[in-house]
Every structure is written in structure tokens, then in C-alpha cells.
Amino acid sequence: LSVAQLAPLGLFVASFSFVYFVVPLAFWGGTPGMLWAGLVARNAVTEPLSFGQSVMRWLGAWLTWALAGLPGLLALGGRSLTDRISGSATYE
To answer: Quick one: pLDDT at residue 69?
Structure first.
């Protein structure tokens, strides 16, 4: 890959991940993988997530990836970084 090809590739990856994570979370309460595993994301009062909360979960996932997964250690306490940022929780 050349430097000129990295920008379009990065834009594609960011766009695809946005559609993959945010749209299903906002409409169905989970990504395809979460729904397959029987998990749903809900807000603090167990209502479906808003679009804004879904976007915050997506940003939290990118932040976790950018920090080499270290924020994943927060999940040992029960809630991941994405849950804390978006004010949501993941339920079975």
C-alpha cells in the first residue's frame, strides 16, 4: 500500500465500521455478532439506545482499539469503556 492509498482505505474502514456498529445498535439494540450471541445494549433504564448513544459506543470502540485494548481492563469491573462513555450496559 502506498501513502496515497491509505486515506481512502481509512475512510472505507471508518465508514464500514460506523454502519456495522451504529445502525444495528440504534435500531435493534446490538451488532449482528451481539445479537447472534444473545446480547443487547440498553441505556441505564433498560430502554433501547438512542442514535447518539450508539455513536458514543462506536467512538469508545475506536478509542479502545487506538489505546491497544488497555481500556478493556475496565470491563473486569463489569462495564467496558464503551458502556461508560455512552451511559449504557450490555445484557443477555
So the answer is: 87
